[in-house]
Specification:
Elements: E1 2-3, H1 28-35, E2 41-47, H2 53-68, E3 74-80, H3 85-88, E4 98-103, E5 106-115, E6 124-129, H4 138-142
Parallel strand pairs: 2-3
Antiparallel strand pairs: 1-6, 2-4, 4-5, 5-6
Length: about 150
């Protein structure tokens, strides 16, 4: 296991919780533009807040960290298995929440987010997993700015 995001208290003081968080439907062109930047990454966490307690605990921390990230780094999205099924298709991870990371169109990391202390108050750890062979190609979909139009 590898320690990843740390305590919310350690976020930069300039971080505003009112920063605009990306929405896959409303921000299609912004997401696509960010993915065109050299070195951009797409980080997607798949969760199910309706029935996954761990997902509900970790979602606010994810939102805070996403708000603190510079736009130049790419895009980070939380996709709910039920609310965002049109993006995910029939893919259902073995464990939730699952972080998937793409670089240059290739899924290079899959990891399950684990509570560091059961409260999500001090961050979380990642349990690395092999990239599932049936993972949806979210980079291809999100890198096209017109995909959500009309």
């Amino acid at each position: 296991m590898r320690w990843v995001w740390s305590c919310l208290d350690s976020l930069p003081k300039s971080c505003s919780m009112n920063s605009i968080l990306l929405d896959p439907w409303d921000d299609a062109s912004t997401i696509a533009a960010r993915l065109q930047s050299p070195g951009a990454e797409l980080k997607v966490v798949l969760g199910a807040e309706a029935w996954c307690d761990k997902c509900r605990r970790l979602r606010p921390a994810f939102d805070a960290l996403q708000a603190a990230q510079p736009a130049a780094e790419g895009a980070a999205l939380w996709l709910d298995l039920e609310d965002h099924a049109e993006f995910i298709g029939r893919f259902v991870p073995e464990d939730l929440p699952l972080l998937l990371r793409w670089r240059a169109g290739v899924c290079v990391q899959a990891a399950v987010l684990l509570d560091a202390d059961g409260q999500a108050a001090t961050g979380w750890q990642l349990q690395e997993r092999p990239v599932p062979p049936d993972v949806p190609d979210l980079w291809a979909g999100f890198s096209r700015g017109e995909w959500a139009a009309g």
